[in-house]
Amino acid sequence: MRPSRRPAALLGLLLAGAAPGLLLAVPPGLAASPAAAATPLPAPSAAPATAAPATPAPGPIVPVPGAPPSFADLVARLLPAVVNVSSTSEVAASGNLPEMPNFPPGSPFEQFFKDFMKRHRQDGGGGDGNGDHPAERQMQSLGSGFIIDPSGLIVTNNHVIEGADSITVTLQDNTVLKAKVIGRDTTGDLALLKVDAPHPLPFVAFGDSAHARVGDWVLAIGNPFGLGGTVTAGIVSARGRDIQQGPYDDFIQTDAAINRGNSGGPLFDMQGHVIGINTAIFSPSGGSIGIGFSIPSNMAKADIAQLRQYGHPRRGWLGVRIQEVTPDIAESLGLPKAEGALVAGVNKDGPADRAHLRNGDVILTFNGEAVKDMHVLPRIVAEATVGEHVPLTVWRDGKAVTLQAVLAEKPDDTQQTAAAAPPPPPPAPKSTDLTGIGLAVAPITAETQAKFHLSKTQKGVVVTGVTDGSPAADRGVQPGDVVLEVQQQEVHNPADVAARIAEVRKDKRKVALFLIQRGEQMQWVPLALEKTKPAEKKK
Question: At a CB cut-off of 8 Å and minimum separation 6, what does 31 contact?
């Protein structure tokens, strides 16, 4: 591709625009004719000679406080502890070779193409040489890592080695060592490797990522595109980023260049401590655009220690399903602020169930730490010690209540939820319209159980219709959904729902909180109450 000449052309335009500006900047009174220019100026009158003040010589350029003149000394100390991680895995070839063309018998091209197809398959291009069975092909993944112990313990991302049949580590002096997996965390995307070296290896230590401030200098070292020992510098761009990669997202954002192959590499502060593990980038092109994300060291330290001791993470587990507290939900519950985590389900016989946590509670604090939003709770619960007694403050029935919970270890398997069955065609059962919400509900009977595929033990009232453009439609409520509670109180028939709504109106609140079940999933849904029109008086 030919290099673009646009910058040079633009520079030329800027320079060309500068010259006329300089000429026009001369005041018109000084633009004399050539004859006038030859006339000598009269001599000035005598005056005491005074020396013009001397212009001070320019002093040395002083760097901005905190900005190092060079990173060279720091990099020289850190580079030996950063490694390249390469993993290989055997995968079946796709066998997507083109079909053999049909040539006339005796054509000189027939044997040529037969030989070509045979050679390609023998090289792993989709067969065993005879075209009968797919061949095995090697897939290679490149990433980065760093040594945290002279015995050869290495930290990297789990996605760098996921599915690998063999892993090798290349040190800065080009020594290649076989590595084995000590432990991995698929949820947190971390892995701990071990290599056997003939001598103690240089290593680096974790720092305190909580002290990293937005604007602090950082260094990223890694293996982008296989270019080992690449160093880039930047600053901490933001803290606490949630990039929807998992339940514990709390990434450090940096503008230090991070590219493919940097995954698993360290992010250093200016003291040479690891404050992050480079994990992901935002890029529409696949290359760095100055938006990279690193796992904070304070999150990784505990995880790596558990991988070293147990081979897997041991996270605290509370046993609740939660959702965001929106301003509408906060208003419906009388919460002063839209903060905390709303409990949308409690696992039976789990820690929360034994602590008497209830559906509809809003968790405000956990173990003394404020839960500003729902994304904070999974992280601080996971960081807590298994078996620890922790206090919780919840918002219940318009006031704060303190509970005690004993944390369990998070199960490895996750509960699979069934999708809601699509609503069958009419005829619809006899329903009750809820004025101002846009819902029609009916009691759960044999008819509604059959129509909406509800279980025989299903409780609540079923939604049979939703008015287009209504608050319920805007919130995504569908026919076949089941209303279990309104304002944290169970409902058993349409009259109960209407009574709860009337109480909300009486309290002059604008939103009613519904607990909606769809299939096996439950969610709190705030529904705005439209103003009811007063009845017209008869004349």
Answer: none
Which positions ≥6 away from 497 have C-beta within 8 Å? 432, 434, 441, 461, 483, 486, 491
According to DSSP, the residues that pair with 137 across neighbouring strands are: 91
Question: 13-37: per-residue pLDDT in tens?
Answer: 232 333 333 222 323 333 333 333 3
DSSP three-state, residue 16? helix
Report the C-alpha gap between 84 and 247 in whole angstroms. Answer: 28
The three-state (H, E, C) secondary structure of 24-42, written as one string: HCCCHHHCCCHHHHHCCCC
84 C-beta neighbours (distance < 10 Å), count: 24
**Exposure class string for 290-317: b at 16+ Cβ within 10 A, else e:** ebbbbbbbbbbbbbbebbeeeeebbbbb
Q: What type of residue is 279?
A: T
Determine contact, residues 78/172, Cβ cutoff 8 Å. no
Q: List helix spans (H) across 384-536.
A: 446-452, 471-474, 494-506
Do residues 208 and 216 touch, judged by C-beta distance below 8 A?
no
Helix (H) / strand (E) element for 366: namely strand 362-366
pTM: 0.64
Ramachandran bin of 496, using left for φ above 0, alpha for ψ from -120 to 50, beta for the remaining angles = alpha
List, for residues 316-374, the tens digit of each pLDDT value: 899 999 999 999 999 989 999 999 999 998 999 999 999 999 999 999 999 999 999 88
Handedness of CA 9, 15, 20, 21 (dihedral sign): positive
Structure tokens at 286: 């696949």
> In whole angstroms, what is the distance from residue 196 CA to residue 201 CA?
10
**340: closest CA among 319, 367, 366?**
366
- Backbone φ and ψ for 473, nearest 5 degrees, come out as -65, -40
**Could you give the C-alpha distances from 437 to 332, 426, 468, 528, in angstroms and in order?**
14, 22, 11, 7
Are 466 and 478 in contact by the 8 Å Cβ rule? The answer is: yes
Sequence-ordered alpha helix ranges (H) in 200-326: 297-310
Spatial separation of the C-alpha atoms in residues 156 and 332, rounded to whole Å: 46
Active site residues: 159, 189, 263
